[in-house]
Structures are given as structure tokens and as C-alpha cells.
Amino acid sequence: MELPAYHAPAWGSVLRATWERGFSFIKRAGTVILVSSVILWFLQGYGFVAAVLGLALVSMIRDARKGKGCGGDCSHCRGCR
């Protein structure tokens, strides 16, 4: 069985293939990084703090309805007065 002669690849085709694969990787990785950054930004800006604050307010309202105070000197519940 006879094999064809081996030739080194041309520099132009090597650079073009490297550029295409590198650009494809950066495009896919950049999309994932951008989407995850936007999600984290949104959750930091609007998600957890509001949820914790909301749970704290719900807890204070429930305590106020049960006749318990919030433990502070305030006017939002019957238990502190």
C-alpha cells in the first residue's frame, strides 16, 4: 500500500483555521459569560435583598397580628406601644 507524499500545511490555512476556531470559542464562551454576568447583576440588584426584606416584613406583620411586637420602639405594630 502506497501512501501519498506528506506536505506541511500552508501558513495561511493554519492561521485561518486557528482564527476561526478561536473566534468560535470566544463567541460561545463570551455568550455564557455575558448571560451569567447579567443574571448575577440582576440578582444582586433586585433579587436577594428584596426577598430577605420581604420575608422580614412578612414576619413582622405576622408577629404584629399575633400580638407580638417587633422588639423595637416603633409605631408599625401594636406590640411595641
Structure description:
The chain is mostly helical and 81 residues long. Helices cover 68% and strands 0% of the residues. The chain contains one helix and no strands.
List keywords for this structure.
68% helix; mainly alpha
What distance separates the N and C termini?
Answer: 100 Å
Main sheet characteristics: none
Element order: H for helix, E for strand:
H
- The helix/strand class is mainly alpha
Helix content: 55-70%
Give the number of DSSP strands.
0
Counting H and I runs of at least 4 residues, what is the number of helices?
Answer: 1
> Overall mean pLDDT score?
79
Strand content: under 5%
The low-confidence runs, each spanning 5 or more residues with pLDDT under 50, are none
Radius of gyration: 31 Å
> What is the 3D shape?
rod-shaped
Ordered list of secondary-structure elements with their pairings:
Layout: H1 11-65
Give a brief description.
This protein has one helix at residues 11-65. It has 81 residues and is mostly helical.
